[in-house]
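User: As part of a screening pipeline, I want to sanity-check one entry by hand. Below is the sequence and the SMILES for uridine-diphosphate-N-acetylglucosamine. Please return the complex as C-alpha cells so I can compare it with the automated output.
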Amino acid sequence: MDQLLIRGGRALHGEVAIAGAKNAALPELCAALLSAEPLTLANVPRLQDVATMRKLLAHMGVQAERLDDDRCPAGECWRLDAAELPRPEAPYELVKTMRAAILALGPLLARCGRARVSLPGGCAIGSRPVDQHIKGLQAMGATIRVEHGYIEAEAPAGGRLKGARITTDMVTVTGTENLMMAATLAEGTTVLENAALEPEVTDLAELLIAMGARITGHGTHRITIEGVAALHAPAQPHRIIPDRIEAGTFLCAVAATGGEVRLRGARAGHLEAVIEKLAEAGVAVEALGTPGTPDEALQVRSPGAAGLKAVGFRTREYPAFPTDMQAQFMAMDCVAAGTAVITETIFENRYMHVNELLRLGAAIEIDGHTAVVRGGARLSGATVMATDLRASASLVIAGLVAEGTTRVDRIYHLDRGYDRMEAKLRALGADIERVKAGAATEDLA
Ligand SMILES: CC(=O)N[C@H]1[C@@H](OP(=O)(O)OP(=O)(O)OC[C@H]2O[C@@H](n3ccc(=O)[nH]c3=O)[C@H](O)[C@@H]2O)O[C@H](CO)[C@@H](O)[C@@H]1O
Ligand SMILES: C=C(OP(=O)(O)O)C(=O)O
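Assistant: Here is the complex for your manual check:
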C-alpha cells in the first residue's frame, strides 16, 4: 500500500495545471449510457474513480477507447461507445469503492427500461442515503424494489419513464444529475425543483444538450427537461470543466506554506466563496485569462502561516462554501493566527481528519457539527492515516507545514480524486514522495 512521505517547511513556487473535475467526469461518463452513438470526453482526469467508472461501464458493455488529443495536456480524451448494453447492472464490488456508481441508475433505466444497481451503503463521511434518487425515479413511473442489497428498477410498461414534477427533500448533487439524465429520454416533461446549482450539474446539462437533450433552467433551482426519443453523438468532444476542488486544495496548500503559484485552468467563477475566505485569511488570489476558457488561471500569493488569520465558515450547497474544501481549510486554520469556528452542515461525520491533525499538534475541539480551531499551532511531523478523500488532502497540507517528517498512510483515498498530487507538489518545490508502506526512513521519529 502506498504512503506519502513529506518533509515540511518549504514554500511553494511555480505553476501547476488543474485537471478536469472528478465530479463532472463521473456523471458525464455515465451519460454515455444514454445513447447508442459514441460520446467523446476531453480533459478527463487520470484518477482512480475515473478508472473505476470505466471498469463499471465496461462491465455493462461500453467500449472505451483512449484518443490522442494534445488539447488536453492535463488530462485524457476518451471515446465511449454504448451501442449495446447487455448487462445494465452495477455490481457491489465496484460500487463499494465508488459511491458515484449510483449515477448509472438513471441512465440505465431510461435507456434499457431496467437496471440493477448495488446500494452504495454508508461511507466515512456519513450515511449518504440515495432515497431521493429512488423517490424521483418512482415519480417517473419506475417500479423499484430493494433486494439483497441491490436496487432493482423497471420502467413502466412500454419501457419508457414518464415525465414528472419532482421536489427533492434537500439539494442533492448526484440526485439532480441522476434524475436529469433519466428525464432526457422520458415521455413528456420533467421539472426538478430544489435542483443543485453546482457547476458540475451545469456542465452535465450542457453535455446532454449537445447530445440532443431539451433542458432549460440548469444553474437554477428549477430544471425543466422535455424528454426526447433518443440522444446522439455530440458534434464536438465535450471538454470537462476544471476541478474547482483540486484548485481549492492547491490554494490552501500555498496559503499555508507561503509562496506564489499559478494554477493553470482554475476558474475563479467556480471558487468565489473559497477565494473570499482566503482573502479574509490574508491570501491574495488574482484571476487571470478569459473567463470560461482553458487559458483561465489563478495566481495565489501568501505570506505563509506567520502572516495568516484563521477564518471560520459554514459549509453549504453551491455557491456557498463547499463541504469538499472544509478539511483543507481546517489544516490551514491550524497554523494561522487566532481562532476559527467551522460548521459542517452537509455531512454528519466529516471531521475524521481532526484526530489525525491533533496527532500533528493541532488544537481543535469538536462539538456536534461545529469545530473550533485554535490557530498558531506549531505542527510536528508524525504518521497519520487518511480516512477519506479530502481528509487525505488536509493531512498533506498539514504535512507540508509541519516540522520534520509526516507519513500519510492509506493514500488510496487521495488517489480517488487527485491526479498524482505528490508529483504536482514536488514540481512546486515541496519535499514529498510516494513510498511503499514499511519503507525505511532514517528521519522518521
Ligand atoms: C460524485 C459527486 O459529485 N460527489 C459530490 C456530491 O456528493 P452527493 O451527490 O453524494 O451528495 P448530495 O448532494 O447528494 O448530498 C447532500 C446531502 O443530502 C443527503 N442525501 C442525498 C441524497 C439522497 O437521496 N438522500 C439524502 O439524504 C446526503 O446524505 C447529504 O447529507 O455532492 C457532495 C456535496 O456537495 C460532495 O461532497 C461530493 O463530492
Ligand atoms: C465526497 C467526495 O466524493 P464522493 O461523493 O465521490 O465520495 C469528494 O469529492 O470530496
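Points to compare against the pipeline: The pocket of uridine-diphosphate-N-acetylglucosamine (ligand 1) is lined by residues 23, 26, 100, 126, 128-133, 170, 172-175, 323-324, 346-347 (CB under 6 Å). Residues 441-445 have pLDDT under 50 and may be disordered.
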